[in-house]
Amino acid sequence: MTTASTAQAKPAKSEHEMLRAQQWSLIASLLLAPPDRDTLALLAGLTGDDTALGQAYRVLAETAATADVDDVAREYFELFVGVGRGELLPYASFYLTGFLNERPLADLRRDLAMMGVERAEGRFEPEDHIASIAEVMAGLAAGEFDASVLGCGAAGEAGFFARHLQPWAAQFFDDLAVAPSAKFYRSVAEVGRIFVDIEVRAFALEAKTQRTSGSSAQRA
Amino acid sequence: MPRDSVRVAVLGVSHPPANKWAKRMVRPAAVMADVPDLESGALMAEQGEVRTYYMGDHAVVLHSGETAHYIDNLRAAQPSLWVSCDDDKVRLVTADPYEGEAMASDPEHLVEALAMPRAVVATIEAFIDAHHVHEEFYKRKRVPATSQYDPRAPRILSDNEKWVQTRGKAGLPPKGAA
Lengths: 220, 178
Description:
The complex is a heterodimer. Helices cover 64% and strands 0% of the residues of chain A. The longest helix of chain A is centred in the C-terminal third of the chain and has 36 residues, at 184-219. Chain A is built from ten helices and no strands. Chain A is globular. Chain A has a single domain (15-219), classed as TorD-like, CATH 1.10.3480. Chain B has helices at residues 67-75, 97-104, 118-131; strands at 3-14, 26-32, 43-47, 50-63, 80-86, 89-94, 110-115. Chain B is an alpha+beta fold. A four-stranded antiparallel beta sheet of chain B has the order 2-1-4-3. Chain B has one domain. Chain A binds chain B through residues 82-89, 94-95, 98-99, 171, 175, 178-180, and chain B through 145, 150, 152-153, 155-159, 162-163.
């Protein structure tokens, strides 16, 4: 999704912001559709350092190296499509209210409309699919989208994340890790879970820094 | 479902019209437990301008699922039978007060609640004794999401909740095949 953006100014983003955008894009692309052979080969080439996230990426690379593309497609079907329903329902509305297409989806659509982001043609998943929100997060991190227009304490990237992803993303990745059919996606869930944790703490740290600098500025 | 029925005779009274534009009409006025040997529509009595007709007999069908309604009816100060007519013809006689009141809301029909004869009361009491099943009233309430009785769909569908193919390639023959 998320093609048209009205954000005109594209401020230069630091390298780590672009890396964040890439991580969100990776998570989005893996949850949107099963990876093809080329993607699996690329994933198999990933390396990681000794941090938790790096280790999770190493596990993902190992799993991708041994995974068969048809098995992964079958696994994706069992997890997210299924007969009747998949094992998981990766929608914000379902996780927050227990039902699909409820108020969280309406809130998200309103925020996206204010940001000037809309669903691309030919994409039929509701916007509160985790892959769609992850794509928006990637766009925000890369500076393609601008969330500063959002009000009610949800302004900016941190606000968007706190409002639409933080309440349920960790729970979703936990569920993905223990879903009966998950094998390849268990390692994806690991990466997603750790990355969401890092994002939560980073946004909290950023808010704290802003608060202290703001108050010191007032005192000065 | 056990059912029982009692035949009752319906008498109608026709008063002279109140003005010259209105027509005479027969309103059901009484219910008798004994069915007389008369043609329906027969004139039974005439006192001045007030005529009493025999409107015919009709079955009161008792359903075992509605015994609670019959109990409500018998508990009333005056147990009644609801008679619904159109054009001097008896269409329905019921001992269920809720069915009767529902019919009364239809202006197309003439519905009267008439005193229930003793014999019919006795029959209905016997029917209630035989078939009534007491059901405790249960007020449904919202179940909190944390309750084990939460009706929501599971977050993770377990393997035994999934649809699995048992027919065709999986083993059993397709449905309808010999």
